[in-house]
Amino acid sequence: MKKKLPITKNKDVVVSWVYTWSKQQDMSIHEQRIVLRILEACQAELKGVKLKDYAGTKRKFEHGLWDVDAQMHVSDVIFSGRDYNEIIAALDSLAGRFFTYEDDEEWWKCGFISNPKYKKHTGIITFRVSNDLWGVFTKFAKGYREFELNKALALPTGYSLRFYMLMSGQVYPLDISLDNLKERLGIPADKYKDKNGKDRIDNFEERVLKPAKAALDESCPYTFNYVKVRRKTQTTNVAR
Asked: What is the DSSP code (8-state) at residue 199?
């Protein structure tokens, strides 16, 4: 049965607000592209496409009792060349990451992927996605974000991709503390601080904000500006 999908205009992917605003770990761009391909498959299912017929022979997703079995080609994740070490590192790292969910009724935690395999001579990647995580990706009771898949896949860094997902469709300014922004971007709390624990705003701007903004300015329909608001000893970045 075809599920009801939020109405979109010139958008390729609709993703649950729960995932978009979840506190993520500092994923590499290749790890995030694997997640984007999972989201792409979720979108196809929401549109009524049978996953066994999805995207030809090299990209397959099939529901099991507990998981979704996934298959794709390395070129779906790494766009230039085929570096065995890069794809193995991405699969290994993503398999060690966890997504945590909690609401008024339940708490659970699962890996982003499990049982990753890479067939070197064919370039085929296989892994499993928990049905619980698949459900988060396809349910919109708490709202959703929409963004263009091709734009997201083309972004060069993990930070620029996270910013794009956070800002896509954003109408009003976001008043967000530096610590909270770092959580949303998957940046460790003690990173970009000096030896006394004071925030190094200049380093954060040069290594995170400015490169991410430049990437979005160049190729995406949504970007952001920011101003620094000092509240006593705390600096708040406001993204617009």
From this structure: B
Angle at 155 between CA 123 and CA 186, to 5 degrees: 95
* Total length of the chain: 240
Q: Which residue in 96, 99, 212 sits closest to 225, CA to CA?
A: 212
SS3 15: strand
Neighbouring residues of 19: CB distance < 8 A, sequence distance ≥ 6? 99, 136, 137
| pLDDT per residue as tens, the chain (240 positions) | 344 444 444 446 666 555 654 555 678 889 988 988 888 888 888 777 766 656 555 788 888 899 999 999 998 888 776 677 889 999 999 999 988 888 788 899 999 999 999 998 889 999 999 999 998 888 765 555 667 777 888 888 888 888 887 777 677 777 888 888 888 787 888 888 888 888 888 888 998 999 988 988 888 877 888 887 776 655 555 555
Q: Which domains does the chain have, with CATH numbers?
A: 13-138 (1.10.10), 160-239 (1.10.10)
